[in-house]
Amino acid sequence: MYAAHYARRTRTVSTSMGKTMTSTNRIPDAIYKFACLLLEDFTQETIRITMHSDDALLPNEYSALLTRKAREGVRIERIGFGCAEFFSQTDHVHIEHKNYSFRFSLNDDYRRMLLLDG
User: Fold this and answer.
1) How much is the pLDDT for 118?
2) Domain residue ranges in the chain
3) Most buried of 61, 64, 73, 87, CB within 10 angstroms?
4) How far apart are CA 98 and CA 53, in angstroms?
5) Quick check: 57 and 92 in contact, CB under 8 A?
6) How many CB atoms neighbour CB 50 within 10 A?
């Protein structure tokens, strides 16, 4: 089993006008490329992924890779955290395939993770 674990680093800042802004760090390019390499070359049965509605969306190529893996018979299980409305409105998250499942978690203890067999 291969695993990549990324801590979510969020900073909330209050502005002088009373507004609150939240910024979330992106996944560094080197880690993103490594994760895609693992997905491409080593995944055979299952991919487990977490994501938060505040995370920067990953490139379309990542979604295309997950879709292809689902079509190849790999089971994909995604757990979403954060704003439930975000997950119901975005096509970028969901894959229309029998090998894809999504569930929403109310738990606030979120970490970005990618777990896959190899």
Assistant:
1) 65
2) 2-116
3) 87
4) 23
5) yes
6) 20
Q: Do 94 and 66 meet the contact criterion of CB atoms below 8 Å apart?
A: no
CA within 13 Å, CB half, 39: 25
- Report pLDDT digits (tens) over 38-94: 888 889 899 999 999 888 878 888 888 999 999 999 999 999 999 888 888 777 788
Q: Which two tokens stand for residue 9?
A: 């680093």
Beta strands in 15-105 (DSSP E): 20-24, 46-52, 75-81, 100-104
Q: Quick one: tokens of 27?
A: 């996944």
Only one residue has tokens 């975005």, namely 90
- Judge residue 38's burial from the number of C-beta atoms within 10 Å of its C-beta, 0-12 exposed, 13-18 middle, 19 or more buried: middle
* Cα R_g (the chain), whole angstroms: 15
Q: Which amino acid is at 78?
A: R
